[in-house]
Amino acid sequence: MSIEKKIISPAQIREQEALCRQIAAVLEARSPRPLALVDTYGCQQNEADSEKLRGYLAQMGCGFTQDEFEADIVVVNTCAVREHAEMRVLGNVGALNHSKKARPGQIVAVCGCMVQQPHMAEKLKKSYPVVDLVFGPHELWRFPELLLRVLTKGKRVFAAEKSDGVLAEGLPSLRDGAVKAWLPIMSGCNNFCSYCVVPYVRGRERSRRAEDVVAEAEELVRAGYKDITLLGQNVNSYGKDLEPSVSFPELLRRINAIPGDFLIRFMTSHPKDATEELFETMAACEKCAHQLHLPVQAGNDQILKVMNRNYTAAQYLEKVARARQAMPDLVLTTDIIVGFPGETEEEFEDTLRLCEEAGYDAMFTFIYSKRVGTPAASMPDPYTRADKQRHFDRLTELANRISAEKHRAYEGQTLRVLVDGETGREEYNLSSRTNGGRLVHLKGDPALIGQFAQVRITGSNTWALYGELL
Ligand code: 5AD
Ligand code: SF4
Question: Residue 9, SS3?
Answer without folding.
Answer: coil
